[in-house]
């Protein structure tokens, strides 16, 4: 049976920064990979108009095509203000997304990230993925997003225990990241292509691979 994977991220570009190599790897292996992006990703810059939002979504769609995403779904929660939204509303949005797909694995944010939207997303996903009878879920994992995960306090630092090798898909991850031309920053900013490549090499070195994305296993159920 075809494996079905979900990536649930707060903002456009988070899905590539944290999970791009893994998305491409799963797609190459024949799995269906669906992505839910919960927030608009622009309001922190001021008052974006409809044209700006449309442009950012077009960049996300272009990145998804490069990675081999099966279905890309956009939410409309406020950027960097998701702590002002009832958590139940976010949970319900995640549940609707998952219930329609029969997903076996879910990847989302590290709950200790500095960005508040990442924190809300992580909590909502873990709530929506509680292990109820009849669930198809087997694993829930948290990933790291450069310029958020490493900026958090020392007691909330991301500590991985799962590694996915992405030597064969790192180039596609970087190509997808370049679609987000307004989100990228020059080296040595952590949200630069060079920093993303360096992080992949560092995570790879931790597990004996040339390049990897690192994750923390939050829950695994063997049925």
Based on the coordinates given, report the CATH architecture: 3-Layer(aba) Sandwich
Q: Any idea what the shape is? A: globular
What order do the SSEs take from the amino end to the carboxyl end, as H and E?
A: EHEHEHEHEEHHE
What would you give as the CATH superfamily?
LmbE-like
Strand order of the largest sheet: 3-2-1-4-5-7-6
Mean pLDDT: 95
Under CATH, the topology can be stated as Rossmann fold
How many structural domains can be distinguished in the coordinates?
Answer: 1
Number of helices: 6
Please report which band the strand proportion falls in: under 5%, 5-15%, 15-25%, 25-35%, 35-45% or over 45%.
15-25%
The unreliable regions are none
Q: What is the CA-CA span between the terminal residues?
A: 15 Å
**Secondary structure: number of strands:** 7
Instruction: Kindly name the structural category.
Output: alpha/beta
Helical fraction equals: 25-40%
Determine and state the CATH class.
Answer: Alpha Beta
Sheet with the most strands, sense and barrel status:
7 strands, mixed
Describe the protein in words:
With 223 residues, this protein is α/β, with parallel strands linked by helices. It has one domain: Rossmann fold (3-Layer(aba) Sandwich), CATH 3.40.50. It is 37% helix and 20% strand. The chain contains six helices and seven strands. The protein has helices at residues 14-28, 50-67, 87-99, 116-128, 170-178, 193-207, and strands spanning 4-9, 32-39, 71-77, 105-109, 139-143, 162-165, 212-220. The protein has a seven-stranded mixed β-sheet, with helices on both faces. β1 (4-9), α1 and β2 (32-39) form a beta-alpha-beta unit. α3 crosses α4. The mean pLDDT is 95.
